[in-house]
Amino acid sequence: MQRILDHYLNRRVLQRWRRAAEQADNSSLPVLRRQRDQARGLRVHLDRLIQVADGRLLHPSTGPNHFPKPLGTDWAWRPELWRMPMTVPGLASVPRKARLDNRVAVFHDCHLAEISLRQIRNSDDSDLAPFGLAVETFEFHGTFLSISVELPDAAAAGLTRQHAIRAGVMARHEHPDVLFARLNIQHGPNTEQVLREIRPDRAVSFVDFDLAHLEFNERRVSKIWLDLILQAPRLNRVVLRDLTLCRYHQADL
Question: In this predicted model, what pLDDT tens digit does every residue of 23-49 receive, in sequence order?
């Protein structure tokens, strides 16, 4: 009965908005303004539903956090950009600071900005992520290009120095280039950083950030983010086919 009622209500809603669209040319301005505001509010939820549904239906047999994890993992995550279609599939002539979604942003110091970013569909049998991010650079006169990924609050909850954070990066380079991963932990007004190099000759690179030697206040950790840094990426195309992060306990010594 509930399914029949939902079908009936959905059909009535569709009829209402179809009629409003057909009469938009002749509607009064107050009515048109009210309908526009209602449609915009509805579109936010519809776009979110379509995005989540497309991401889940692409790989129904695997969950969003399906990837290899070390023993003792208590938190794991694959960012939405690698598992759900973006509302805007790409950017061209990227400014020095641009946001791709609510957790992924790009930064660089090149004044020409001959950079393009585009979400692509992964198609290899070895791909566990439905999507990847292609980064193309032409003339690049800056010193760095960084893809910054902000981790969810769950990654910082209960974080201690006995933890280690692992980043799994699957990247393909048109020309071999140096790629660095930098973990940033903000605690109070201070930020601790750990830098690791990712070798371009490996299909999948795992980098572990040991937190035992960092001086941070475990009770004041407020934000964690990861920077994937390409140094002087001139005339190159780098495809980040997957990015995964997990947090695990290290053995007590």
Answer: 988 889 889 899 999 998 888 888 888
Parse the chain into domains and list their residue ranges.
Answer: 2-58, 73-249
User: Does position 61 have pLDDT exceeding 70, yes or no?
Assistant: no
Strands 145-150 and 221-230: antiparallel
CATH 2.60.120.260 fits 73-249, yes or no: yes
Give this prediction's pTM.
0.74
H or E segment to which residue 73 belongs: strand 73-77
Can you read off the two tokens belonging to residue 113?
């900005």
Q: Which pairs from 213-221 meet CB under 8 Å and 24+ separation?
A: 214/161, 214/185, 216/161, 216/185, 216/187, 216/190, 216/192, 217/187, 217/188, 218/159, 218/160, 218/161, 218/187, 220/187, 220/188, 221/156, 221/159, 221/185, 221/186, 221/187
Tell me the pLDDT tens digit for each residue of 129-166: 889 999 998 888 888 899 999 999 999 999 999 999 99
Nearest one of 143, 139, 170, 160 to 238, comparing CA atoms: 170
